[in-house]
């Protein structure tokens, strides 16, 4: 008789594979939790008074499409652009 197991064996999981799957999971969670935020923009950059908004897109643009253009989206004020250019942040000089 042999002392070897007779059932199917799963290959050993390497540390690299575990790390890869963990990274995929973290990225998926981060991307799903960032919905509704301005990618690459600070919150202050989108605080543009309604009268100063400069249109940044086309009619019926979605918030996601607007954001992908690097612009801010706010549909809470009728009669002004909802997709508009962000404020430029001042650079610090020393």
UniProtKB/TrEMBL annotation:
Record has rRNA-binding as a keyword: no
Gene Ontology biological process terms in this record: maintenance of gastrointestinal epithelium
UniProt key word Secreted: yes
Pfam families according to UniProt: Trefoil (PF00088)
S-S bonds: 46-72, 56-71, 66-83
Main location class: cytoplasm
UniProt subcellular location: Cytoplasm; Secreted, Extracellular space, Extracellular matrix
Domain P-type: 44-87
Gene Ontology CC: cytoplasm; extracellular space
Keywords associated with the record: Cytoplasm, Disulfide bond, Extracellular matrix, Secreted, Signal
Gene3D superfamilies listed in its UniProt record: Spasmolytic Protein, domain 1
Signal peptide: 1-36
Subunit details: Monomer. Homodimer; disulfide-linked.
The protein's role, per its UniProt record: Involved in the maintenance and repair of the intestinal mucosa. Promotes the mobility of epithelial cells in healing processes (motogen).
Protein name as catalogued: Trefoil factor 3
Name of the coding gene: TFF3
């Amino acid at each position: 008789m042999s002392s070897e197991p007779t059932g199917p064996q799963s290959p050993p999981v390497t540390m690299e594979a575990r790390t890869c799957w963990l990274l995929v999971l973290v990225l998926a969670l981060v991307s799903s939790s960032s919905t509704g935020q301005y990618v690459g923009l600070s919150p202050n950059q989108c605080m543009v008074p309604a009268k100063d908004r400069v249109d940044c897109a086309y009619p019926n643009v979605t918030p996601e499409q607007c954001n992908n253009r690097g612009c801010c989206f706010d549909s809470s004020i009728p009669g002004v652009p909802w997709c508009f250019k962000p404020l430029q942040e001042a650079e610090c000089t020393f």
